Amino acid sequence: MPLALNCVNTHIDKFGKKRHCGQVEPYMDPKTEQVFCPLCDNEMPNITHFTKVTLKNLRQFRTKPQIPFCVKCQSCGKEAQPAIVSDDIVCPSCSKAHTHLSEPFKIMLKDKLRTANKDV
Predict the structure, then answer these.
(1) CA 102, CA 11: separation in Å to the nearest integer?
(2) H or E element, residue 110
(3) Cβ(41)–Cβ(49) under 8 Å?
């Protein structure tokens, strides 16, 4: 069961009004040990050491967003969805070709990338 805390920060809701976040299930950055509110994405003030230890034990960390068809670049080291440039799969950050991918995977990836970000 996750730990719930009261956030005193304000956020703008979907109707454009300022509201207090209220009781939320915060997440913790394990590197900096800062606690953040999931609604307003701001650091929550006055969090005790005991609460931080509890969050760490419960593993209430921020999850990494899932990007479909993500490939790690061998040149720059960034992990992102590749782009198709002149029938070649390239890194969107450094624009170098992904030569480390196998041919069957490249064929599948080209097919899926053409339809991945289109709305139905």
Answers:
(1) 46
(2) helix 103-116
(3) no
| Alpha-carbon span 44 to 27, nearest angstrom | 10
To the nearest whole number, what is the mean pLDDT of the chain?
86
Closest listed residue to residue 25, CA positions, set 37, 33, 11, 10 = 37
118 — pLDDT class (breaks 50, 70, 90): low
- What are the structure tokens assigned to 2, written together? 């996750």
Query: Is the C-alpha dihedral spanning 65, 78, 86, 105 positive or negative?
Result: negative
CA distances from residue 13 to 10, 32, 43, 70, 110 in whole angstroms, order as listed: 9, 28, 18, 31, 39
Contact criterion met (CB below 8 Å) for 95 and 101:
no
DSSP state letter for 1: -
Instruction: Summarize pLDDT for 52-62 with one digit per residue, the tens.
Output: 999 999 999 88
DSSP code at position 43:
B
The whole-angstrom separation of Cα 83 and Cα 114 is 9
